[in-house]
Design a protein that fits this description.
The complex is a heterodimer of chains A (about 120) and B (about 180). With about 120 residues, chain A is mainly α. Helices cover about 70% and strands about 0% of the residues of chain A. In chain A, helix 4 (about 70-80) crosses helix 5 (about 80-100). The radius of gyration of chain A is 24 Å and the shape is elongated. Chain A starts with a helix and ends in a 19-residue tail after the last helix. With about 180 residues, chain B is an alpha/beta fold. In chain B, helix 2 crosses helix 4 (about 100-110). Chain B is rod-shaped, with a radius of gyration of 34 Å. Classes of the chains: A mainly alpha (about 120), B alpha/beta (about 180). The interface of A and B includes residues 20, 21, 24 and 78 of A.
C-alpha cells in the first residue's frame, strides 16, 4: 500500500514501514475503544427507534440478569431485530417499575410497608 | 523474521473453505504429492526409509492422491504437494528422519490449497441472519403500507411528557372510580 519510491527503494521505504508498524501497535488499543463507541452508537439508535433509550436498557438488563455484551447486542439489533425488539419491550415494561425517566422513584409493587414508611 | 512481520507483510484473509468443503461431504483437497530424493546421498536417508516402509500404506489409504517419486542425483530431498484449487506447498526434507516425514506428509494431506495467512476473524457465515436483517420498516406498523396520506396521527407531534390535559383527565378518572 505504499506509493512510488516508498515501495521500491529500501532506505526510503524502511522509514515508512517502521511508521506503519508503530501505527499498528498503537491502533490495537484504539480499535477496542473505537469498536465500543460504534456499538454504543448503534444500540442508542436501535433503542430510540423502539421507544426506549440505551441507558434504561442497560439498567434493566443489569437488574433482570441478562448478561449480553455490547457486541452481541448490536449484532442482534442488526441481524435479529425481532429479538432486539423483545428486549426493548422488556425495558419499557421494567423501566416504569424501576422508576427510570420519572420523578416518582421506584414503584412500591411487591414491597410490604405496613404503614411504617 | 518475527510472526508480526510475517503477519503484516504476508497477507491476511477471512476463513474460507474451497467450495464450502465441510458443509456437505468432505473431499480431500490434496491432488498429488511428489517425493524428490537422492538414491545415495545421506541427506535423503530418512526419505528413502519412508519410501521403503510407509509410502505404500499411505498410497493405499489415500486412493485419491497421485504419488510421484523423483530420484535425482545430487539433489536435496523435498516434498511438493499440489491441491485441487491450484495451491502448492513445498517442504524441504533435508536430513529429516522417517518419523518427521510421516508427520509432514500428514500435514500436507490435511491442508486446503489456500496459502498460510493471518485470519482476520475466526468465524464466517453465509447466512448471518435468521429473522431477516434490519430494514427501516421492520419495526413500523404494516398498516402504513395501505394507508392514504395525509394521516393526522402520524403528523402529530411526539408526546414526551404528560400534558396538563392528560393529568386533568387522569384525576377525573380516579375520582369516578373512587365514587365521588
Amino acid at each position: 500500500h505504499f506509493f512510488g519510491r516508498k515501495q521500491n527503494c529500501y532506505s526510503i521505504a524502511i522509514k515508512y514501514v517502521h511508521r506503519a508498524l508503530r501505527y499498528g501497535v498503537r491502533a490495537r488499543k484504539i480499535k477496542k475503544y473505537e469498536n465500543r463507541k460504534l456499538w454504543d452508537t448503534r444500540l442508542t439508535a436501535g433503542c430510540l427507534e423502539l421507544g426506549t433509550n440505551y441507558t434504561n436498557m442497560k439498567s434493566v438488563m443489569d437488574d433482570v440478569g441478562i448478561a449480553i455484551d455490547r457486541k452481541t447486542l448490536q449484532n442482534m439489533a442488526i441481524w435479529e431485530p425481532r429479538s432486539f425488539r423483545a428486549l426493548a419491550s422488556l425495558t419499557k415494561a421494567k423501566e416504569e417499575e424501576k422508576g427510570l425517566n420519572c420523578l416518582g422513584g421506584p414503584s412500591s409493587v411487591g414491597v410490604v410497608t405496613r404503614g411504617m414508611l | 523474521m518475527t510472526t508480526q512481520t510475517w503477519n503484516r507483510f504476508w497477507g491476511s484473509t477471512f476463513v474460507k473453505a474451497p467450495l464450502r468443503n465441510g458443509v456437505g461431504r468432505y473431499v480431500q483437497q490434496l491432488q498429488r504429492i511428489t517425493f524428490k530424493f537422492c538414491k545415495t546421498h545421506g541427506c535423503s536417508q530418512g526419505m528413502r526409509e519412508y519410501i521403503e516402509k510407509e509410502l505404500i500404506e499411505f498410497a493405499r489409504v489415500n486412493p485419491g492422491v497421485v504419488v510421484y517419486l523423483k530420484p535425482r542425483r545430487h539433489r536435496s530431498p523435498c516434498l511438493k504437494a499440489e491441491y485441487l484449487n491450484g495451491g502448492e506447498e513445498y517442504i524441504s526434507c533435508h536430513r529429516m528422519t522417517n518419523e518427521d516425514i510421516v508427520k509432514w506428509v500428514e500435514y500436507l494431506r490435511t491442508r486446503s490449497g489456500y496459502p498460510v495467512e493471518r485470519l482476520r476473524k475466526y468465524q464466517h457465515t453465509d447466512h448471518p441472519s435468521i429473522q431477516g436483517a434490519w430494514t427501516p420498516w421492520i419495526h413500523r406498523d404494516p398498516l402504513v403500507n395501505i394507508a392514504e396520506y395525509p394521516i393526522e396521527e402520524l403528523s402529530a407531534a411526539f408526546k414526551t411528557e404528560k400534558t396538563a390535559t392528560d393529568e386533568v383527565l387522569e384525576l377525573f378518572e380516579k375520582q369516578k372510580l373512587s365514587g365521588i
